[in-house]
Amino acid sequence: MQHCRTLLHAGVLITQDAQRRIIENGSLAIRQGMVVAVGTREALSAAWQAEQELDLGSMLVLPGLVNAHTHAAMTFLRGLADDMPLMDWLHQRIFPVEARLTPEIVRLGSLLGYAEMLRTGATACMDMYIFEEAVFEAARAAGLRCVGGEAVFAFPSAACAGPEAALKATRALAERCAGEERLSVAVNPHSVYTTTPEILTACRDLAEELGLPLHIHLSETREETELCLRKHGKRPVELCRDLGLLDLPCTLAHVVDVNEEELDMLARHKVVAAHNPSSNMKLGSGVAPLSSMLERGLVVGLGTDGPASNNQLNMFTEMGRAALLHKVAGHDPTLLPAARVLDMATLGGAAALHDARLGSLEPGKVADCVALDLASPNLQPLYNAVSQAVYAATGLETRMTMVGGEILYQDGRFSRFDYDALCREVSDLRSFALRAAGLAE
Amino acid sequence: MQHCRTLLHAGVLITQDAQRRIIENGSLAIRQGMVVAVGTREALSAAWQAEQELDLGSMLVLPGLVNAHTHAAMTFLRGLADDMPLMDWLHQRIFPVEARLTPEIVRLGSLLGYAEMLRTGATACMDMYIFEEAVFEAARAAGLRCVGGEAVFAFPSAACAGPEAALKATRALAERCAGEERLSVAVNPHSVYTTTPEILTACRDLAEELGLPLHIHLSETREETELCLRKHGKRPVELCRDLGLLDLPCTLAHVVDVNEEELDMLARHKVVAAHNPSSNMKLGSGVAPLSSMLERGLVVGLGTDGPASNNQLNMFTEMGRAALLHKVAGHDPTLLPAARVLDMATLGGAAALHDARLGSLEPGKVADCVALDLASPNLQPLYNAVSQAVYAATGLETRMTMVGGEILYQDGRFSRFDYDALCREVSDLRSFALRAAGLAE
């Protein structure tokens, strides 16, 4: 007998290993936060002695979903402004509120966002915002994994006087979270249209110096491309390539308005795209050429973007919309099958977060997993567990969310923080937000 | 003091009345299954004496959603076959199973579908399938409202030897459910491509004779239009118009491949379109020209279609996808705002079911409503109740579903049937379905 901390038993276990094994009555052996064995309940029970057993009955267990691009702090603005032209929405509603942000507001908004992620099966995310130290405080409070970093703009934010200050904050964040197993830092130039080539170069240099990945919004809209062409005589991907950004581990959010040449360029550089179907749909940005990306071997993760342009942080919602959007856009029901979508939300997310420990349940990977209640009417009957996760689940069937072997959410209870108190605190921010957005005196 | 059966108290009440009032601490007075008063809790508590009070705390109460087009029985096939070319999917998977259907299978599949609808906030649906008597049996068992009718094809189904038999079954169904308050019958020619002008005429005649509405799939794909042009020298809408179908109360499912002239034709005839965004997306059928429809004053309901092409029967999922699909298709974030989508799912559904008692909570309407738990992390904080319902809710926040003043679902329990027993029975159908679909020996 070998010894482990936890033996977890599932009705059905989606491993996402190289063979994409799905094991009925499957079990995980977990030691020191890592998966040490995967197999049938029978085999693992015979081979492993555990300090505790977690019997999830008939539930479906799958790797924790990875949200490849988000701004969780904006959750405190959910539903404040919808259905507006993009520029009005930004300038009248979002920017005026963001100009008055404080670390405490960012912490509360982020924690609510992470509560939603844990509640709907996500165990890790790539986050970009301001006051990112407060974002990390929320991530610690929630317990989920986060790759974050201070957003770098050419202009002042509520958090930083300018790009130098943002880079300094990024460096400080990287120092402070060194050695934290669930937190790591990326350098976050916001976009090509909110920075300059000089700032992008400084971001690249810092990333190179500290060995950090880069995370940037890229080619989100046609307007971005046109602006970039006017200003720099190049399309956004070309600009980033010429500045050497694509030579680093790089996560590119959106990648909607790209041509064939740019896609070839991206595929050659082994960067990762973070696809955000809900946001691209809600803002009317366009449809990312996902089939062309995947054909070229470009690795793609799936993200929710911020709740102000979604309005959910729910990776199950995102999987369903991704699967459906590309079928209708390509007039072909065979495009982006369920298994491919689940790959994006798990292994693609691991690539986007530049963390190879994530994305599947097999020895050597971290014990990040979620359990779905298959007894929910929308998950009955069960023919195909992957189809059920991608097409039929809403996310709220999640009964248990585990990160590194630790249960962070189970049956209505968050283990690390007081959810009801959080809701009261976030609710108290409403009058501030309404006033700042010009919606109340 | 006036007397009523129930006083229902909500944290927030979306009425969908002519003023689209949203009442904080709102209440409903219910008598004999009807809403008799709506107002603040304070006002109603002072004016009405109730046999029972139903205090839903801080929950959001809205009119029961109306599913304008579905084939609920197919729920027993959920996830059996996805991501296939349409014709392979139909001929290899769906038709072989449907050829071996029995009333009992149809009853079980429908009841599971209705369980999902009640669980996710729908209180009424427009259903089309075969063995519709068994569908009605399921609707009675679940308690939700259903407008159904035997599907009429030019060829035999497992239920009927041909169109005459299907029309006879429709007539018998109408006789048997006369006087049933929650069930009514429509004449259901399946489509122009699975019937003939003679059959369509016979359907129209029966509908006219019995005073029933018509329900037909129309202009779902470009292929349907091309086939119709080749066979009849007319586009589908024109064919139906010339046969007099559009002169009756008529619900047209899909209406995707239509031109401006056809839209004008439809608007002139006061028919109702049932929009099915998930199905149109998953099957790659195309994007219905919703903005053009609404501009012309065409009334539009929202439907899930069958679970084999969705794979959910969840009107909240459908609302979110509808709102997002048309924004990205039209490259405009202001298209189809949340309030318009909720109108489609409530008042539009009432029109699609030809039942003016549905769709809003006001005196004279039936007491069909649902309560959402706003404490769910994805519904926090609350700025705008309609935005929350359309963009943020998954449907599983539904804590209570009421039809005609009767609670049919509350906190995990269905009041009229044994859900666990149903799941076992549906699960037992899996080997039949796999064999019939050629997926098992």
Measured distance between first and last alpha carbons of chain A: 68 Å
Give the overall average pLDDT of chain A.
Answer: 97
The CATH homology group name of the largest domain in chain A: Metal-dependent hydrolases
Number of helices of chain A: 16
Multimeric status of the protein: homodimer
Overall tally of structural domains of chain A: 2
Helices and strands of chain A: which structural class?
Answer: alpha/beta
Shape of chain A: globular
Number of strands of chain A: 21
- Write the CATH fold name of the largest domain in chain A: TIM Barrel
Kindly provide the name of the CATH class of the largest domain in chain A.
Answer: Alpha Beta
Percentage of residues in helical conformation of chain A: 25-40%
Strand content of chain A: 15-25%
Q: Would you identify the regions of chain A where 5 or more consecutive residues have pLDDT less than 50?
A: none
**How would you characterize the largest beta sheet of chain A?**
7 strands, mixed
CATH architecture of the largest domain in chain A: Alpha-Beta Barrel
Tell me the Rg of chain A in angstroms.
21 Å
Q: Which chain pair shows the most residues in contact?
A: A-B, 76 and 76 residues
Order of strands, main sheet of chain A, comes to 3-2-7-18-19-20-21
